[in-house]
Amino acid sequence: MKTNFTNITLLLVLGLGSTAVSAGSNFTIYPKVGTTLPTTVNSGSSVSAYYTITNNTYTSRVGYQIVGLPNTVTQNTASGNCSSPVTLGPRASCTLQLDINGAVSANFALCKGNNCTEAAAPLNVVLASLNPPFLVGGQYQEAAGFAPLIARSADFGATWSYTLTGNSLVYPPALVPQHTHLIPAPVLQASSCTGNTCVMVGNSNSTAPLAATSTDGGLTWRYSITATTPAAPAGFVTGYLMDVYCSRTLCVASGQYNNGSSDYPLVVASNDSGLTWSYVMNANTPSLPASYVTSNGMRGVNCNGTQCIAVGQYSTSGGNGPLIAVSGNGFSWTYSMYLGAPGTTLPSDYLNNGNFIKGNHAGVNFLAAGNYQNLDSGSGMTFYYPWIALSQDNGLTWSFPLSSSTASTITDYADNGMFNALSCSGGLCVAAGSYTNSSSGTMPLAAVSTNGGISWTYKISGNSPALPSDYPVTGTGGFYAAHCSGSTCIVAGNYTVGANSFPLLANSQNNGATWSYSVYRNVPNYPTSAGDSLVSGDFTTVTCVSKNCIAAGSYNNGTTTYPLLAISTNGGVTWTYKINSLYPALPTGYVGAGGFYASSTGISNFLPASLKNLK
Fold first, then answer.
1. Gap between the Cα atoms of 474 and 125, Å rounded
2. pLDDT digits (tens, 9 = 90+) for 202-231
């Protein structure tokens, strides 16, 4: 972003500089792929942050300075790093190494005179303190109905306790059980943290959205969205929330509602870290596309600073189409993608049923993942393919770097491709889901991008890497969750063997270049004990902080369904089961149907609010 030097200096001193970089900038400054920006530093020592500076022009750029660094940060110009001042040839890049010996919470810029380009991600480092807690959320059944369930760990998953149950907080009664990866929502389906405040969202019964908010890193909770708070849109009859994302003090959650005659997109927003909320998207706001008939809701939401997107699907009289809305503050929204929207060209073979399940951002790029129905020009037949949409202008216009043509690299691809999950860390992104192969089996699927979603390569299919030996070629399996942290990525879901399903998880330690399966039936060994064994199960959510990861879902021991969670301390290479029917002690009155659908990383009291969802 080109900015007046005087203005940017003031912004940097105040720590309020925008992290956005315009597509037309001479430079881009991204965290270096394969590295993670440090968040803590021990007293008396130093840590390093690595960025890649790229000259986007076709001419040499000479004499640019790094400005805005506090006295706790110095540029390291050792051999192989960017020089000072920075000089780059046409389309060239260099590695910027910043050595940090104390706390810093500020952005910086590359400037020459009055022309400056800000880094896509600021520095946020504090003196080492408490470990960030892991949080998982979902539901369970008790005699009175279904209740929300949240578990917390403050030691990277070694020990756990339930901090929200039907016994710990009065909750709306008559909760309706829903076990699905898409819609309707289970009791708590999505989670996000900003600072020490964490929010989980879902549905409070068959008719109303639900949000639980914690201001102490998940130790205690209160319900901030219920059937009566805040005031629902006019005509509201039923509704629920499917996703949530918090960025600094802004939190945005998305879903859908019904007014008695039709379904509509639903978005709620909070500017106080999820303590109070307002409905900001409904049947009348913003204006719906002219072809709108009904909606399958906004299934995903994501923000980069105050720039936000909500993604989903809507129906017309002739079928279904993709739907994306954008906002510059989380409260005022505009639809930027729909059938016939200006600035968006759908894939040339698009026929119908475009759909987005998840949204995310990689640096300044926004991404949306799901699937669509195409018309094959050769056979005249229709098929479903995964797709990914990319925006490089804060969601205003969109392109499709991944569609049916990319699937040609999957030799056994037949139909029904879908992305259910999307995660990014710096410029590294992974999209995960499933497809049907030529033997009518359902196979796991994952694609990887290392340049912020601009280009994609399929890395997991039925042919590579080697599937677990008991995975039937005509079996059913797929991924429903994904997370990247630095150079580590994990994707998780389930697969069937005979009549039962089992957790399935693959990991990559090299920016998604190669993958291996590290969780499947009997790996790791489930700690069988009297009256308890893993007869069937799945993973529905994953989260990592550096190399510390959790994978959670549910399992059945032959008679009852319970919450399930495994941890890894080496980036997903090996795993240990931690939460089951025996540990931690189940809530009093537990009947069954327990499971986790949401996970996130809370932040300790000693960390600044700008650090959320450590990656």
1. 49
2. 997 667 899 999 988 899 999 999 988 999
